[in-house]
Each structure stands twice: as structure tokens, then as C-alpha cells.
Amino acid sequence: MQFDLFDQAQNTVLAANSYEEFRKKFLEVGCTQCGLHEGRTHLVIDRGNPQTEILVIGEAPGEQEDLQGKAFVGRAGQLLDKIMASINLDTNKDMIIINVVKCRPPNNRAPVEAEAKTCRPYLNLQIELVKPKIILLLGATALKHMIPEKKNFSMEQEAGNFFIHPNYPGIQFMVLYHPAYLLYDPRKKESMWKHVKKLRDFLGLQKGKESKTFEPLNF
Ligand code: SF4
Predict the structure, then answer these.
(1) Per-residue DSSP letters for 10-66?
(2) Is 216 helix (H, G, I), strand (E, B) or coil?
(3) 42 Cα–ligand 1 center, Å
(4) Which end of the chain has fewer CB atoms < 10 Å from its terminal CB, N or C?
């Protein structure tokens, strides 16, 4: 891990040996490495359980997340809770949810490449400490910044796909629509349901269990 872009305070955060230590130090020390710190109320590190096999990566904190200091607690987060509950997953226990950047961009714009790059060592450390077996990428921003060689893709083609990547051995990736996009275009909910059923079947197979039949909730 490269520390040279970061000052001593950030080195302390990035030297954490456990997720709990990382969280505690990050909250104590804060971060001013990119311009997004200027508009934030709280750093938004995550929501959920770091002792899990499922890591979910979204885009950036929104208004509610910034106010509460927790990831995915606004309308999109509540929809994500319902979507995951429809396949029997509890977002607070069965997964940990993080974002590409930890501070809210102005007017909820997508983070730019420089901001995502500057924030990346924190995300890398979260992956390293959680050691997930599956990473769910929510939306185009997460896919673009995690897999930068993917260019000119459309979410219509990518959503619902599984893939592996040589930089992340042992981790299965899956791309899903961002729940904020479903709020914007509810017609995509039907596709989302097909995708989460694939996820449910994949997780069932991983555990060597037969896939149970869940009925879709009205998410
Ligand atoms: S977005 Fe990331 S790099 Fe930028 S100030 Fe916040 S924590 Fe630091």
C-alpha cells in the first residue's frame, strides 16, 4: 500500500490492522485530502457488518448519509434494504455497504476521477480488512472506478453480470443497478428483481444449499 500521497494522520488510519481500528482512527483523524471534505457534515465510512462475506460498493454519501454519518440511510438506502430483504438478506447483518468516496459531493453529483482516486486507499483497505467473497457494485460510478479499464459500457448491458478480476483474486463481482436509479426509473425494478434472484441463487450455491424460493417483495 502506498502512503506517500498521505500525511501522517492518514498513514495512521491506513496502518490499521483490523476493521474496528480503521473505523475508530478514521473518525478520530478525519480526512482533508480532497475538496469534498469542505462540504461534509460527517465522514460516511460504511453501514453494516464488517464480519461478512458480502461487500457492497455504491457511489457517494447523499444528504441523509452526510447528516447521519452512515451509508445508504436515505430513500435509496431504504430501497436497497427492501431489495435485499426480498432475498432474505439483512443489510445491517449480512453485508457491509461502503461508497467510492466517503464525503458528500456538492448537489449529489457523481465523484470525479481525482476525488475517487484520492479516496481509493481507504476503499482498498476496507476490501483488505473485510476480505469479502463477493463484491456488489451498485451503479455505473462504482463499476467505473473499481474497474477503470471498463470503458463505454452501458448499465443495461452490465447490470446482473458476474465477473472476476485478476487484481482481486478469490472475489466474485456482480454489477447491480444503483437503487437511486430505480427511484428515478421504476421500470427497471423488474430487471433488478431478475438480477437479485441470480444473486440469491449464487449465494445459495456458494453455501452448498438448495436455493429457496423467495417471493419478490413489492420493492
Ligand atoms: S472524499 Fe475521501 S479523500 Fe476526499 S476528503 Fe473525504 S475521505 Fe478524504
Answers:
(1) HHHHHT-SSHHHHHHHHHHH---SSGGGGG-SS----EE-SSSSEEEEES---HHHH
(2) coil
(3) 11
(4) N
In a domain, 217, yes or no: no
Strands (E), the chain: 47-48, 54-58, 96-99, 134-138, 162-163, 172-176
Q: Tell me: the pLDDT tens digits for 105-117?
A: 999 999 999 999 9
Separation of 44 CA from ligand 1 center, angstroms? 10
The answer, as to whether pTM is greater than 0.70, is yes
Q: Are 70 and 111 in contact (CB under 8 A)?
A: no
Domain range enclosing 23: 8-206
Q: Whose CA is nearest to atom 2 of ligand 1?
A: 119
Give yes or no for residue 98 CB within 6 A of ligand 1: no
Counting the structural domains of the chain, the total is 1
User: 69 lies in a domain?
Assistant: yes
Residue 59 CA, ligand 1 centroid: distance in Å: 13
67-113 tens-digit pLDDT? 999 999 999 999 999 999 999 999 999 999 999 999 999 999 999 99
Q: Is 3 among the domain residues?
A: no
For residue 30, the ligand 1 atom closest to its alpha carbon is: 7
- In ligand 1, which atom is closest to the CA atom of 101? 1
CATH of the domain at 88: 3.40.470.10
